[in-house]
Task: structure prediction
Amino acid sequence: MTLDRRTALTGISASALAILLPNSVLAQSGGTLDQIKQRGSIRIGVTQAPPWFSKDPKTGEWSSGFGISMGKAMASALGVKLETVEVTWGTAIAALQSNKIDIMYMLDATPERAQAVDFPQSPLLYYSLAVLARDDLPAAQWSDLDKVGVRIAVPQASSMDKFVSEFASKATIQRFPGNAEAIAAFQSGRADAVSLFHPPLLVARKTLGTGKIVVPKPAKFQASSAALRKDDKPFRDFVDNTFATHYKSGQTQKWYEEFLVSFGLDPKASPAVMKEML
Result:
């Protein structure tokens, strides 16, 4: 499938999505769906990581970001409110297991995580691993960064942590609770580079006004997903259907581009988050 960035983004409304959902999924008793209905809200894990989640510093509300848009669409489809619960990438799985949240977007499906949580079959979106590095730091190849004395900041227990630990094992890997702390380490000079997937680095580079964004070779390109509690097929099917519907309609890319524009970034300068548009 080939999608034009301008013409393909005819999104499907959340109310229309509800019509597409099997009645058996929405009406299941027990499990996450039933709890959401009884509570009147769907709880999503959030952490300061634009463009995925962004908190308004003036109001303290989680008001924007791709994950917020997806959460609102799911809430609307289920006829409930959206509830945000602050976590870190490292504590999100524990929050799921202890029933503090119902879903955590942007957690990649790895074999290790799959032992503790479930993932829908349909991808949420696609992205490339990149670094925001000092202007004078060679970073075209991972081998450029795989040197003693090079300090690379990553969010702890993340896909970036795992990949950088493997491909830049000689470097000093600095692990932080989340994206914001890792970026702050780079900003303060405590790290020579920060490694995240490409979209958050666009936002960080604009905010900091310094450094260069590089996708080192060999490029790491993968699908992202969302973590769910184990053995809850009705909710997993709902999430799977939701992701597939928004992805195929182009709404996934549209939400991403809307956030970039709101942040003053040109979507054309960023790789798409749909692999058919890359």
